[in-house]
Write a structure and sequence with these properties.
The chain has 14 helices and 11 strands. The protein is of the alpha/beta class and 366 residues long. The strands form 2 sheets. Strands 8-7-6-9-10-11 form a 6-stranded parallel sheet, sandwiched between helices. A 5-stranded mixed sheet has the order 1-2-4-3-5, sandwiched between helices.
Length: 366
């Protein structure tokens, strides 16, 4: 990461903007990356994590922003891709309510300064309570209480639909009954995903770094527990990474003993071309994560509807992930291409088409 060059990376992947925010008094350090706004304002959650280095924080924000562009395009919604990474000690902020208020209101003011080019939402360590404070300083925030609320259950629902599509494609039935699913990460999204899989009859193997989260899922589903570094090599039908990204990489792919990789995490592949191709060559079906986990962004997009949020309509759109995933898997099989390439082609075609539409002048010549 020491050799990470921001402008070279921006040029390579066509980023529009990277903003750095700092508020000395509260200790806020944040970076917001805007990848593409052809389809609409950039939307992406704000992730709070104590990264090892600032380079890692910046790189993660940029990778996640690009993933959001593709996610929104594949979901058929009118949003671009953005992401915020807040770098620091989560527990320090949580422990001091006064500090927390100044920290999150300062963040809200910085988001407001982007004048709607970027809309934020919940992500790791930023839930509804945090967003409510941010909302005191800006309206450019979604996933609020009383509106669409916590998007985590909707992300889990969409991921479950994607898993069903993979099972339909590979096994001829969408049911996960009797299938063994290894879920890495059982936080807000992973927990609900486990419950949906359990209700459908799947056998669960789980791991997490938080024992309380593990205990909660074991109590509700009877899942088997393994250590974090053992999850990659367990015998299973489906590996569902649902925590941090980049867990499918050159070190873990040789360990995988699954037929399907489909989870709720963002940027599952450490290096898309290399790792996506490696899975393809190994005969493992990879469900592009930016399609599988789009339930949350679809849900908050419905919050932006001028007629108001309608959960029934949002769920209908989320459930379409099943058909969209089947379409990608079918086209990949017919063409012999890796699934990520097919998903990218579909997303990029929509962005290109709308870019041409955007060239139509509607306000006359200046």
């Amino acid at each position: 990461m020491k050799d990470f060059k921001i402008f070279e990376y921006m040029e390579q992947y066509s980023y529009e903007q990277v903003n750095f925010f700092h508020h000395k008094e509260s200790g806020l350090k944040a970076v917001t990356a805007v990848h593409n706004t052809v389809l609409g304002p950039a939307l992406g959650g704000s992730r709070f994590w104590n990264y090892a280095t600032e380079e890692e924080a910046i790189y993660d924000a940029m990778r996640l922003a690009r993933g959001m562009t593709y996610k929104s395009s594949l979901a058929g919604i009118n949003l671009g891709g953005g992401k915020t990474v807040i770098w620091g000690d989560v527990n320090r902020i949580k422990a001091d309510p006064v500090l927390a208020e100044s920290f999150w209101r300062a963040f809200g003011r910085y988001i407001e300064s982007m004048h709607g080019r970027y809309i934020t939402a919940a992500d790791m360590n930023t839930g509804e309570a945090v967003l409510s404070i941010v909302n005191q300083e800006t309206e450019h925030v979604v996933g609020l209480p009383g509106r669409s609320g916590n998007p985590s259950p909707k992300t889990a629902r969409g991921t479950f639909r994607a898993i069903q599509a993979c099972c339909e494609h590979l096994y001829g039935t969408k049911s996960t009954k009797g299938r063994t699913v290894a879920v890495q990460g059982v936080g807000e999204v992973g927990r609900v995903l486990c419950e949906l899989l359990h209700e459908d009859g799947a056998n669960l193997i789980i791991t997490d770094i938080n024992q309380d989260l593990i205990d909660r899922v074991v109590k509700s589903t009877g899942a088997k527990v393994v250590k974090p570094d053992e999850i990659y090599s367990v015998e299973c039908d489906i590996y569902a990474p649902s925590a941090m990204g980049a867990t499918v990489n050159k070190d873990t792919i040789p360990q995988l003993k699954c037929k399907i990789v489909c989870g709720a995490a963002n940027n599952v592949l450490a290096h898309q071309d290399e790792d996506g191709t490696a899975l393809h060559e190994k005969g493992i079906l990879y469900a592009p994560d930016y399609l599988a986990n789009a339930g949350g962004v679809i849900n908050v997009f419905h919050e932006l509807n001028i007629k108001g949020y309608n959960e029934e309509n949002a769920i209908k759109d989320i459930d379409q992930i099943y058909d969209r995933m089947l379409d990608v898997l079918t086209k990949a099989k017919e063409s012999g291409k890796p699934t990520y390439k097919i998903a990218n082609e579909i997303a990029e075609a929509r962005i290109a088409a709308m870019s041409n539409v955007n060239n139509i002048r509607t306000k006359g010549l200046v």
